[in-house]
Design a protein that fits this description.
The structure is a homodimer of 449-residue chains. Chain A folds into three domains: 126 residues, Alpha Horseshoe (MgtE N-terminal fold), CATH 1.25.60; 107 residues, CBS-domain; 152 residues, Orthogonal Bundle (Tetracycline Repressor, domain 2). The first copy, chain A, is mainly alpha-helical and 449 residues long.
Chain lengths: 449, 449
């Protein structure tokens, strides 16, 4: 319903543009909420966007650029002349403005910064990577002093007229600007107007330093139910505030990246249908080739056992079934372990407990699957010896896949690699060649070939 | 560092419990933040927990139960006598209390409700599923009236002394309790004290009805950067408020479920190491068996082509390589499509665009992989005809896997199934049998066997 409504607006904006009525198109866009403005705007052609953006008021243009995919926004900004871009950047939140400037040509950044009203709000943010606390934070915050009264603090808030997102937690600093407490707006309002900030503030503040990763910020804010997280420099001076709306975006973005990596592809930088076919191909071909090369080990194993396979042709009928089941068991394990690592249920110190947990799960699963496989093989008319081979093999392969699935993500984390690279496809591929070796070795022993 | 600090506290709590000094153990726990209290508390044995909980003050016990895994909290609550449980439930947030009561024995719920100070806060919440807006919302909110002044509104807030989480957005209702606007605390503070609420409120409020799914609530709040989302009944009367901290938990929980399902397992109900080996096995065996049965189709296909396989034994060396690559290409596609659906980048209306997108990606990937496979087959000493077979097969299989990977999650969504069930393992399994059929049919034609 909502989407159809936006489609309708889009059609009317296009119609207005077709008859060159820029003002009508701008009015229609401005009647929408920022996220919806960005959605409709993104659907327009680039020339239409460039023509329309300077006609919108700078606050709306700023909202649109903040809500668009980062790369798309940067491309668009690069096309705008300085005199159109500067007033828009002036209206953006400092953290979003810094992200945008970080993505456009370096020689233009200086020109734009020079034209801004408050370049010093944005400048320090440019020094930090986008995915660190320093890149995520806003430098627009109001710091209170311990000797202020509640009434004076409320007066300061009124005089400041802040953006909504940074007002609900107010941080208290000492004479050197060092973080010394936090007070929330509720406490300020409820307090007797003459109370000193020092008496109502909580001196035990949770904070991070500028270099802390954005995932760690998200984990802290989600764990302690924070709406804002103060960021300090090496001297514990307050330099910015990370707000919950940015962290919600981080959570969604990180889950997207994890899921794409688990599927065996590099994460896309923009929304799916806006990513070109060529770019999606480039994000996938690397893994596909690497897995192909690893997978070709299966051919080596099969040729190694060529005589056995020729002696009992029926052995080959079970190959996809056995290695497929191993890959599935391994995927189940890695996805559980990877997520448990991501949400902090386990850490490296739990490596042995996790392995032991998975080996016991693998034992139970292996026993269950072995019984089913035994009956299945008999029902296909296989000899009892072949059925026994298949069922022993599936037991061993499931146990092996579960162990490998538990160890690999932990090992990746240990050596500083994102554990999501040990995804389902990587697991299946590793289990395929090793599983074949296990299967055919067992066949050789049981069948005496 | 943080974790080691908690381990240290845990050791000291255990030590105090060992010498039966319940008070010392309680004091140590009470010095921590709620999330940390819950972590340390969860590590204790059940008897220790039952002994300790009534010694903590009810606010702390309430925080601990709110932060523990839901099933663990319910088990613990079931063990407590009514006179210990009631004061704790009284201190819990209404939405969390309703979740807890929904998980304990029904006959106890009435006794507990009867003992509460404000049972009517919790009672309506029990009627909604945990994962709907009605189950997620809190019924503890302050509604303003249009004719109030800003000063009166602030006075009302002071008199009410609310929990922090529901104060930053204040919703305005008419004489019938129907939602008619929203005003945020910042606006109230900045406004002239005599301004009427009707003049500063935004009448265009984003709201949901009680039955709306929690994922939709999260999507709306993340899209529009909301800190609170009002929930109304069928008559548009305000009945509750969903707050951002609950939505952050929903986002983390839903991502966990998606990732576990993508790995081919049912999601776990509690944290990994707290889930018994037996329970993990039960969450996985169903899928593993279902995939096993589907995968055994590969055996049927192989037996169908028994003569061809015996004529050219080398054909079988490429089987795992070809079906493995097909499974990998399919997993890459499904995980991209599933995530694009989840974050709203695409919806069912984009089905054909998505399929067309993936078919073109498949074409490029297929051409790339076919060239590599041709050279690889030759380097293994295969005949040019066999190399051609393998390379045609891999092209067709990758194209097929990409198409299938695009269509299946959309089809699942269309018929009302969670698209994550069409996960990597399901894809690999489907592609295995069909891929084999494609490969051996091409072999029959090219090699003329």
């Amino acid at each position: 319903m909502e989407v159809r409504f936006l489609d309708d607006i889009l059609a009317r904006v296009r119609e207005a543009l077709a008859r060159s009525d820029l003002q009508a198109a701008a009015d229609m866009l401005e009647s929408l909420r920022p996220a919806d403005q960005a959605d409709v705007f993104s659907e327009l052609d680039e020339e239409e966007q460039i023509a329309l953006l300077p006609r919108l008021n700078p606050e709306d243009s700023a909202d649109i650029l903040e809500k668009m995919d980062e790369l798309e926004a940067a491309e668009l900004a690069s096309e705008l002349p300085d005199e159109a871009l500067i007033p828009i950047v002036d209206e953006m939140e400092p953290d979003e403005a810094a992200d945008l400037l970080g993505d456009i040509q370096e020689e233009r950044v200086h020109a734009v910064l020079a034209g801004l009203e408050d370049p010093e709000e944005i400048h320090p943010l440019l020094l930090h990577p986008d995915d660190s606390a320093g890149g995520l934070m806003t430098s627009e915050f109001l710091a209170l002093r311990r000797r202020m009264t509640a009434a004076e603090a409320i007066e300061a808030i009124r005089a400041w007229k802040p953006e909504a997102e940074t007002i609900y937690y107010l941080f208290v600093v000492d004479a050197h600007g060092r973080l010394s407490g936090v007070v929330n707006l509720r406490q300020l309002i409820i307090a007797d107007p003459d109370t000193l900030i020092a008496d109502i503030m909580d001196p035990d503040v949770i904070y991070v330093t500028e270099g802390v990763d954005q995932e760690e910020c998200a984990r802290l804010m989600s764990r302690y139910d924070l709406l804002a997280l103060p960021v300090v420099d090496a001297e514990k001076r307050l330099v910015g505030v990370v707000t919950i709306d940015d962290v919600v975006d981080v959570l969604v973005e990180e889950a997207t990246e994890d899921i794409q990596r688990l599927g065996g592809a590099e994460p896309l930088d923009r929304s799916y249908l806006d990513t070109s076919v060529w770019m999606i191909m480039r994000k996938r071909i690397g893994w596909l080739l690497l897995l192909f090369v690893t997978e070709s080990l299966t051919g080596t194993v099969l040729r190694h056992f060529e005589d056995e396979l020729q002696a009992v042709v029926a052995l080959s009928f079970f190959v996809p079934l056995l290695i497929g089941t191993g890959g599935n068991a391994g995927s189940q394990t890695t996805s559980t372990i990877i997520r448990a690592l991501a949400v902090g249920d386990i850490d490296l110190g739990d490596a042995f407990r996790s392995l032991w947990h998975e080996l016991r799960v693998g034992l139970l699963l292996g026993l269950g699957m072995a019984s089913v496989a035994y009956l299945r093989a008999l029902s296909w008319g296989s000899s009892p010896e072949l059925a026994l081979t298949v069922s022993l093999a599936i037991f061993a392969i499931v146990l092996w896949a579960n162990g490998l699935g538990a160890v690999l993500p932990l090992l990746a984390t240990r050596i500083g690699i994102d554990p999501t690279v040990v995804s389902g496809p990587v697991m299946s591929t590793l289990v395929d060649a090793t599983g074949l070796f296990i299967y055919l070795s067992i066949a050789k022993m049981v069948l005496g070939i």
